[in-house]
Amino acid sequence: MCLAVPAKVIKxxxxxxxxxxxxxxxxxxxxxxxxxxxxxxxxxxxxxxINKIDDAxxxxxKDTLHEMLGDSI
Length: 73
What we know:
It contains one helix and five strands. The chain has one helix at residues 55-69, and strands at 5-13, 16-21, 24-29, 41-45, 48-53. The chain has a five-stranded antiparallel beta sheet, with helices on one face.
């Protein structure tokens, strides 16, 4: 199953960024999105940011994942 997850950009270093994915920091590639900035919310799939999302959609997805995963995260 393929799943994209919401993430928040913490640091940017050229073509890569450090993001927070539900409390876990990961290094991802950001070359597929335009003008990435620290604090942007993005969808991450297979190590790539695939698009930016707004705060409302980010919070909806984060809350939905927390509900689905329960106490396992």
